# Entry
Amino acid sequence: MVIIRNAKFPEDLMEIYEIEQNAFENDGYSIYFITQALEFLSNSIFVAEENNKLVGYILGALDQKDGNLGWFLNIAVMKGNQGKGIGYKLLEKLMDFFKESKCKEVHLTVAPNYSPGIHLYEKFDFKKTKIIKNYFGKGQDRLLMIRDLSTV
Ligand SMILES: CC(C)(COP(=O)(O)OP(=O)(O)OC[C@H]1O[C@@H](n2cnc3c(N)ncnc32)[C@H](O)[C@@H]1OP(=O)(O)O)[C@@H](O)C(=O)NCCC(=O)NCCS
# Structure
């Protein structure tokens, strides 16, 4: 059975790093960034645990300037565990966090052609909004998707 719970620091650090390395094929967040995120954003980081092993995680944050805005920053599920609904459960939990935090809008960016992600985000009513050119540097465009929570 998969349990979704808040991430713990430092206990979950190495396993989250392992998930990043696995899901993003060694192109994920550095261990330095994950450590800092776990220190400062622990309320909005959730992990999926199965048989005492972490198989996925999700990272969100509340915007520092705009109290109505939440950011869905990252999600990753171990390759061997993808396609089993774990990403869905993680995103459900993060969306609950944003609703409890009274966010009116949630933003995310995704590679414009990354259909597994876009498909999942559309299930949560994220709408394709615009392409932001060179978001992550030259040639690294991103699709901005927005979920309106103002009527929830
Ligand atoms: C995106 C990701 C988190 C989805 O997690 P997951 O646990 O596999 O997702 P789920 O099993 O909950 O599936 C949710 C929906 O996405 C679909 N989906 C999952 N993997 C898919 C794939 N490879 N291709 C197409 N659709 C896919 C599922 O079919 C499901 O839709 P359905 O119910 O209509 O069938 C996972 O594929 C992943 O870790 N990818 C690598 C990291 C990454 O790129 N993260 C996104 C950064 S923006």
